[in-house]
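Standup notes
- DV: blocked on the single-chain target, sequence here:
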Amino acid sequence: MLAVTIPTLVGIATGWYAVSTTFTTNSMALWTGLAVIVMAYLCTGFWEELVFRGVLMSNAAEGIRGWFSRRNVIIVVLILQAVIFGVIHVDQWTTQAPHPTFVVTWILGGFMYGLLYLLGNDLALPIGVHAAINTAEAGLFSQTAPAEGGIPVIVLIEPISQSILAGHGGILMMSRTVLAAILGILWLWYIREGSLDLWTHSAMRVSDSTS
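- DV (later): unblocked, structure below
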């Protein structure tokens, strides 16, 4: 959540975001609503990471491993799943984002989650990071006003414009994912005492001599 909080506070401090209201609860109690958000986005994070990182990446690697070296397989698969992840979120930039180019934000998100999956060698970290970002954007700092009787929001913010900087899917939103990935990589580096390897994920193994 720190990765969402820092760019958002920067946006508020610089005037790119305006605080519309705080503690918008409607008919649902605040903590009940936040618990619902956490559970919902844990489920979302779990299935999206399982499908896009766990299933898609391993199956894509299996399919192309006869064509590329081990490292190139990983690079191709990492980019491929990120693009598919971004395209699958097409509804985000047709209903909320003002410019189709903002799909880059979701492609970058897929790339970062894939990177965490490869470096961490399992789905735990990308699931946690994905769920935390979504939870913070929905319940902590939200740009979407809750519907009547809907999920509460702690801080409701409004961008000063739907520009490439502050608008939905813009640079400030993109920076949250980048910061989350950096923090995740630093955490992995710390717990593994500086030992990180992008090329040895068990699901990406390719038997060749041109690694």
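- Follow-up: The longest helix spans residues 30-64.
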